[in-house]
Write a structure and sequence with these properties.
about 300 residues, five-stranded mixed β-sheet, about 45% helix, about 10% strand
């Protein structure tokens, strides 16, 4: 299926927090991955990853191509002309075609290109001013803030780092700021997939995690808005987020270990508890984008 990105000045999702806070975890995750990749043995590159049909080298080919996309997207946004590259993008077929076209290139060459693509991305985002973080640029959901674009970029790379490492018996470090940002974005993306379906939708769910502790509310309507969990609690008695007090008390809560929740929302593992059928549409948006009915470990990106 094709993406249905929303372009224009009405972003389909809005995150909370300081927009520039994503810079440090995005860079640290990529630096850690660089070290891991540099230490890989020749045989490791051909080892199957968690992505169906992709080797570890194939995943790296994908990550290098997505870095080029993020850099081009943000550059266009900073010029005031956000790109629309993904208008005809198929999140299953398009990444596969890009990887297929690059097969045969040596691991050394792919790794060198990945390292250079990281530097090119950092050169664009490290000098961003406070106002530039909120400018619109393109991500798979459409035109969103540059901060949201980089949340997507971190989430995608964080998941694919695990796609490479876990089958090799390696366990990537779970840095709290990275995991929290990925959880926030994965929850928002699932809601955005529902909001972009073309059908009127309205719903809400809570996320409460440990390791690290994250509390947030995902509010889905024409757009998706994320709110910190303490905001929800403060307004609960007044029904202050568009629902009655009784309805607010019944809002579904997705709870568990933060890394496990990111994996579940990203189609990498089952949810820690059964999801009521009537609200599953809010939590399985990424699975629908990638045409996966359950955790098939087939997520590829960019995406």
């Amino acid at each position: 299926m094709l993406l249905n990105p929303r372009y224009g000045d009405n972003p389909i999702l809005a995150l909370y927090g300081e927009p520039s806070a994503i810079l440090a975890p995005l860079i640290s995750q990529r630096r850690r991955l660089e070290v891991t990749l540099a230490a890989m043995a020749e045989a490791d590159w051909a080892h199957p990853s968690r992505c169906d049909g992709w080797s570890c080298l194939d995943v790296l080919i994908h990550l290098e191509s997505t870095n080029a996309f993020w850099t081009a997207s943000i550059t266009g946004g900073l010029k005031g002309t956000p790109t629309q590259f993904l208008a005809s993008f198929d999140p299953v077929a398009s990444p596969a075609a890009l990887v297929d076209g690059a097969r045969g290139v040596s691991a050394d060459v792919v790794l060198a290109k990945f390292l250079a693509s990281n530097e090119a991305l950092f050169d664009v985002i490290e000098p961003l001013t406070s106002s530039e973080w909120s400018m619109l640029a393109e991500a798979p959901p459409g035109h969103v803030s540059i901060s949201a674009v980089l949340h997507h970029a971190l989430w995608d790379s964080w998941i694919h780092e695990r796609d490479i490492c876990l089958p090799l018996g390696l366990t990537p470090s779970s840095e709290s700021d990275e995991v929290a940002a990925c959880l926030m974005y994965a929850a928002a993306l699932s809601g955005a997939a529902a909001a972009s379906s073309g059908r009127p939708v309205e719903g809400m769910f809570r996320v409460r995690s440990e390791n690290p502790e994250v509390q947030l509310v995902v509010e889905i309507g024409e757009s998706v808005r994320l709110r910190q969990g303490d905001w929800f609690d403060e307004h609960r008695e007044a029904g202050g987020i568009g629902v009655t007090v009784a309805e607010t008390a019944a809002v579904f809560e997705l709870a568990g270990d933060a890394t496990e929740l990111v994996e579940a929302l990203s189609v990498r593992a089952p949810f820690p508890a059964a999801i009521p059928e009537e609200i599953s549409w809010m939590l399985t948006g990424v699975a629908r984008l990638f045409e996966a009915e359950e955790a098939t470990h087939s997520l590829r990106g960019p995406g």
